[in-house]
Design brief:
Layout: E1 7-11, H1 17-27, E2 31-36, H2 39-49, E3 52-55, H3 61-70, E4 76-79, H4 94-122, E5 125-130, H5 143-162, E6 168-175, H6 182-187, H7 200-213, E7 217-220, H8 223-234, H9 236-245, H10 249-262
Parallel strand pairs: 1-2, 1-4, 2-3, 4-5, 5-6, 6-7
Protein backbone atom coordinates (compact mmCIF):
# COMPACT_ATOMS: atom_id res chain seq x y z
CA UNK A 1 0.00 0.00 0.00
CA UNK A 2 1.52 3.32 -1.08
CA UNK A 3 1.35 6.11 1.47
CA UNK A 4 1.83 8.86 -1.12
CA UNK A 5 -1.58 10.21 -2.10
CA UNK A 6 -3.45 7.96 0.36
CA UNK A 7 -5.93 9.26 2.91
CA UNK A 8 -4.54 8.30 6.32
CA UNK A 9 -6.51 8.42 9.58
CA UNK A 10 -4.03 8.72 12.46
CA UNK A 11 -5.16 8.46 16.10
CA UNK A 12 -3.13 9.54 19.09
CA UNK A 13 -1.46 12.35 17.18
CA UNK A 14 -1.07 14.74 20.12
CA UNK A 15 1.27 12.60 22.20
CA UNK A 16 4.33 10.41 22.00
CA UNK A 17 4.93 8.76 18.66
CA UNK A 18 1.89 10.38 17.05
CA UNK A 19 3.58 13.68 16.25
CA UNK A 20 6.56 11.95 14.66
CA UNK A 21 4.22 9.78 12.60
CA UNK A 22 2.26 12.81 11.40
CA UNK A 23 5.45 14.55 10.26
CA UNK A 24 6.67 11.53 8.31
CA UNK A 25 3.33 10.74 6.71
CA UNK A 26 2.94 14.35 5.63
CA UNK A 27 6.45 14.36 4.17
CA UNK A 28 5.53 11.26 2.16
CA UNK A 29 2.52 12.99 0.61
CA UNK A 30 -0.30 11.45 2.64
CA UNK A 31 -3.64 13.22 2.98
CA UNK A 32 -3.79 13.32 6.75
CA UNK A 33 -6.87 13.07 8.93
CA UNK A 34 -5.80 13.65 12.55
CA UNK A 35 -7.90 12.99 15.61
CA UNK A 36 -7.62 13.78 19.30
CA UNK A 37 -9.58 15.07 22.26
CA UNK A 38 -8.13 18.60 22.53
CA UNK A 39 -8.83 21.22 19.88
CA UNK A 40 -5.95 23.42 21.04
CA UNK A 41 -3.50 20.56 20.44
CA UNK A 42 -4.96 19.58 17.05
CA UNK A 43 -5.20 22.99 15.41
CA UNK A 44 -1.43 23.69 15.18
CA UNK A 45 -0.93 20.26 13.59
CA UNK A 46 -3.66 20.94 11.06
CA UNK A 47 -1.89 24.13 10.01
CA UNK A 48 1.54 22.52 9.97
CA UNK A 49 0.59 19.51 7.85
CA UNK A 50 -2.41 20.79 5.92
CA UNK A 51 -4.41 18.08 7.66
CA UNK A 52 -8.08 17.65 8.37
CA UNK A 53 -8.84 17.24 12.07
CA UNK A 54 -11.69 15.50 13.88
CA UNK A 55 -12.27 15.97 17.60
CA UNK A 56 -13.09 12.66 19.26
CA UNK A 57 -12.73 10.90 22.60
CA UNK A 58 -11.81 7.28 21.87
CA UNK A 59 -13.25 6.18 25.21
CA UNK A 60 -16.70 7.31 24.01
CA UNK A 61 -18.43 4.77 21.76
CA UNK A 62 -20.54 7.42 20.04
CA UNK A 63 -17.44 9.50 19.32
CA UNK A 64 -15.67 6.51 17.78
CA UNK A 65 -18.63 5.82 15.49
CA UNK A 66 -18.85 9.49 14.52
CA UNK A 67 -15.12 9.54 13.85
CA UNK A 68 -15.48 6.59 11.48
CA UNK A 69 -18.37 8.32 9.69
CA UNK A 70 -16.48 11.60 9.29
CA UNK A 71 -13.33 9.78 8.17
CA UNK A 72 -15.13 7.86 5.43
CA UNK A 73 -12.84 7.29 2.47
CA UNK A 74 -9.86 6.40 4.65
CA UNK A 75 -7.32 4.28 2.77
CA UNK A 76 -4.99 3.66 5.72
CA UNK A 77 -5.90 3.52 9.41
CA UNK A 78 -3.01 3.92 11.84
CA UNK A 79 -4.39 3.23 15.31
CA UNK A 80 -1.71 4.73 17.51
CA UNK A 81 -3.62 6.15 20.50
CA UNK A 82 -3.17 4.47 23.88
CA UNK A 83 -3.31 5.18 27.59
CA UNK A 84 -0.21 4.17 29.62
CA UNK A 85 -2.33 2.33 32.22
CA UNK A 86 0.65 1.29 34.31
CA UNK A 87 0.35 0.46 37.99
CA UNK A 88 -1.18 -2.27 40.10
CA UNK A 89 -4.73 -3.16 39.11
CA UNK A 90 -5.94 -2.57 42.68
CA UNK A 91 -5.06 1.12 42.30
CA UNK A 92 -7.54 1.55 39.42
CA UNK A 93 -11.22 2.34 39.74
CA UNK A 94 -13.69 0.41 37.58
CA UNK A 95 -14.20 3.57 35.50
CA UNK A 96 -10.46 3.88 34.87
CA UNK A 97 -10.31 0.22 33.83
CA UNK A 98 -13.18 0.75 31.40
CA UNK A 99 -11.46 3.79 29.89
CA UNK A 100 -8.13 2.01 29.41
CA UNK A 101 -9.78 -0.96 27.70
CA UNK A 102 -11.88 1.35 25.52
CA UNK A 103 -8.99 3.49 24.30
CA UNK A 104 -6.34 0.78 24.01
CA UNK A 105 -8.41 -2.01 22.49
CA UNK A 106 -12.08 -1.37 21.81
CA UNK A 107 -11.63 1.86 19.83
CA UNK A 108 -9.01 0.49 17.40
CA UNK A 109 -11.02 -2.71 16.96
CA UNK A 110 -14.23 -0.76 16.29
CA UNK A 111 -12.53 1.67 13.90
CA UNK A 112 -11.13 -1.30 11.97
CA UNK A 113 -14.59 -2.86 11.80
CA UNK A 114 -16.23 0.36 10.61
CA UNK A 115 -13.57 1.41 8.08
CA UNK A 116 -12.60 -1.97 6.62
CA UNK A 117 -15.75 -2.63 4.51
CA UNK A 118 -15.08 0.35 2.24
CA UNK A 119 -11.44 -0.73 1.89
CA UNK A 120 -12.54 -4.25 0.98
CA UNK A 121 -14.99 -2.89 -1.58
CA UNK A 122 -12.20 -0.79 -3.11
CA UNK A 123 -9.83 -3.77 -3.07
CA UNK A 124 -7.09 -1.78 -1.35
CA UNK A 125 -6.19 -0.40 2.05
CA UNK A 126 -4.21 -1.04 5.20
CA UNK A 127 -4.88 -1.13 8.93
CA UNK A 128 -1.86 -0.69 11.20
CA UNK A 129 -2.03 -0.98 14.97
CA UNK A 130 0.71 0.47 17.17
CA UNK A 131 1.05 -1.98 20.04
CA UNK A 132 3.89 -2.68 22.43
CA UNK A 133 6.27 -5.46 23.39
CA UNK A 134 4.10 -5.49 26.53
CA UNK A 135 1.70 -7.35 24.27
CA UNK A 136 4.18 -10.23 24.10
CA UNK A 137 5.76 -10.21 27.57
CA UNK A 138 4.07 -9.28 30.84
CA UNK A 139 5.93 -7.33 33.52
CA UNK A 140 5.18 -6.15 37.02
CA UNK A 141 2.65 -3.32 37.39
CA UNK A 142 1.41 -3.58 33.79
CA UNK A 143 -1.53 -5.94 34.16
CA UNK A 144 -4.05 -3.56 32.61
CA UNK A 145 -1.72 -2.17 29.92
CA UNK A 146 -0.35 -5.59 28.98
CA UNK A 147 -3.84 -7.05 28.92
CA UNK A 148 -4.99 -4.52 26.33
CA UNK A 149 -1.82 -4.92 24.25
CA UNK A 150 -2.03 -8.74 24.30
CA UNK A 151 -5.63 -8.37 23.08
CA UNK A 152 -4.61 -5.91 20.35
CA UNK A 153 -1.90 -8.24 19.06
CA UNK A 154 -4.25 -11.23 18.89
CA UNK A 155 -6.94 -9.16 17.20
CA UNK A 156 -4.52 -7.79 14.61
CA UNK A 157 -3.03 -11.13 13.62
CA UNK A 158 -6.44 -12.78 13.36
CA UNK A 159 -8.01 -9.87 11.46
CA UNK A 160 -5.13 -10.09 8.99
CA UNK A 161 -6.17 -13.66 8.22
CA UNK A 162 -9.84 -12.65 7.95
CA UNK A 163 -8.97 -10.02 5.32
CA UNK A 164 -6.48 -12.10 3.38
CA UNK A 165 -7.17 -11.92 -0.34
CA UNK A 166 -9.27 -8.77 -0.14
CA UNK A 167 -6.45 -6.35 -0.94
CA UNK A 168 -6.54 -4.98 2.61
CA UNK A 169 -3.48 -5.59 4.78
CA UNK A 170 -3.26 -5.61 8.57
CA UNK A 171 -0.13 -5.08 10.66
CA UNK A 172 0.91 -4.56 14.25
CA UNK A 173 4.04 -2.59 15.18
CA UNK A 174 5.34 -3.24 18.69
CA UNK A 175 7.97 -0.88 20.12
CA UNK A 176 10.09 -1.66 23.12
CA UNK A 177 11.36 1.19 25.30
CA UNK A 178 11.33 4.44 23.29
CA UNK A 179 13.66 7.25 24.32
CA UNK A 180 12.95 11.00 24.25
CA UNK A 181 9.17 10.52 24.34
CA UNK A 182 6.54 9.20 26.70
CA UNK A 183 7.18 7.85 30.16
CA UNK A 184 10.98 8.11 30.14
CA UNK A 185 10.97 11.71 29.00
CA UNK A 186 8.27 12.53 31.57
CA UNK A 187 9.93 10.82 34.54
CA UNK A 188 13.62 11.16 33.70
CA UNK A 189 14.10 7.52 34.67
CA UNK A 190 16.30 4.97 32.99
CA UNK A 191 15.07 1.72 31.54
CA UNK A 192 14.72 -1.34 33.78
CA UNK A 193 18.04 -3.18 34.15
CA UNK A 194 19.69 -0.82 31.66
CA UNK A 195 17.86 -2.27 28.66
CA UNK A 196 18.68 -0.38 25.44
CA UNK A 197 16.09 1.89 23.88
CA UNK A 198 14.97 2.73 20.35
CA UNK A 199 14.38 6.15 18.83
CA UNK A 200 11.01 7.56 17.74
CA UNK A 201 12.40 7.53 14.19
CA UNK A 202 12.88 3.74 14.37
CA UNK A 203 9.24 3.31 15.43
CA UNK A 204 8.04 5.55 12.60
CA UNK A 205 10.15 3.60 10.12
CA UNK A 206 8.59 0.40 11.44
CA UNK A 207 5.07 1.70 10.85
CA UNK A 208 5.93 2.88 7.33
CA UNK A 209 7.50 -0.48 6.49
CA UNK A 210 4.51 -2.38 7.88
CA UNK A 211 2.10 -0.40 5.71
CA UNK A 212 4.10 -0.31 2.50
CA UNK A 213 5.24 -3.94 2.62
CA UNK A 214 2.20 -5.43 4.34
CA UNK A 215 4.24 -7.02 7.16
CA UNK A 216 2.19 -8.89 9.75
CA UNK A 217 4.23 -7.94 12.80
CA UNK A 218 7.23 -5.69 13.38
CA UNK A 219 8.96 -5.54 16.75
CA UNK A 220 10.95 -2.31 17.12
CA UNK A 221 13.53 -3.08 19.78
CA UNK A 222 17.19 -4.01 20.29
CA UNK A 223 17.97 -7.63 19.47
CA UNK A 224 18.35 -8.65 23.10
CA UNK A 225 14.91 -7.29 23.99
CA UNK A 226 13.32 -9.07 21.02
CA UNK A 227 14.86 -12.32 22.22
CA UNK A 228 13.85 -11.74 25.84
CA UNK A 229 10.26 -10.93 24.89
CA UNK A 230 10.05 -14.06 22.74
CA UNK A 231 11.34 -16.18 25.62
CA UNK A 232 8.94 -14.49 28.06
CA UNK A 233 6.04 -15.30 25.76
CA UNK A 234 6.91 -18.99 25.84
CA UNK A 235 8.17 -19.27 29.42
CA UNK A 236 6.40 -16.66 31.55
CA UNK A 237 7.37 -18.22 34.87
CA UNK A 238 11.05 -18.11 33.97
CA UNK A 239 10.72 -14.52 32.75
CA UNK A 240 9.05 -13.51 36.00
CA UNK A 241 11.98 -14.84 38.04
CA UNK A 242 14.50 -13.07 35.81
CA UNK A 243 12.65 -9.77 36.15
CA UNK A 244 12.61 -10.03 39.93
CA UNK A 245 16.36 -10.54 40.02
CA UNK A 246 17.12 -7.73 37.60
CA UNK A 247 16.73 -4.90 40.09
CA UNK A 248 14.14 -3.17 37.93
CA UNK A 249 11.59 -2.43 40.67
CA UNK A 250 12.87 1.09 41.62
CA UNK A 251 12.53 2.20 37.98
CA UNK A 252 9.07 0.67 37.69
CA UNK A 253 7.91 2.38 40.90
CA UNK A 254 9.14 5.76 39.63
CA UNK A 255 7.29 5.38 36.33
CA UNK A 256 4.12 4.16 38.00
CA UNK A 257 4.14 7.04 40.49
CA UNK A 258 4.49 9.60 37.68
CA UNK A 259 1.62 8.05 35.75
CA UNK A 260 -0.56 7.84 38.86
CA UNK A 261 -0.16 11.58 39.41
CA UNK A 262 -1.22 12.25 35.80
CA UNK A 263 -4.42 10.21 36.00
Amino acid sequence: MRITGATVLLTGVTGGIGGALAAELSARGAKLVLTGRRREALEPLADRYGARTILADLADDDDVRRLADEAAGTDILIANAALPSSGDLLDYTPAQIDRAIAVNFRAPALLARLLAPAMVEAGRGHIAFVGSLSGKAATKSTSLYSGTKFALRGFSLALRQDLHGTGVGVSIVQPGFVRDLGMFAATGSGTPAGVRTVSPRQVVNGVVRAVERDVAEINVAPLELKILSAIAGQFPGFAERVQRRSGAEPTIRKIVQAQRQSR
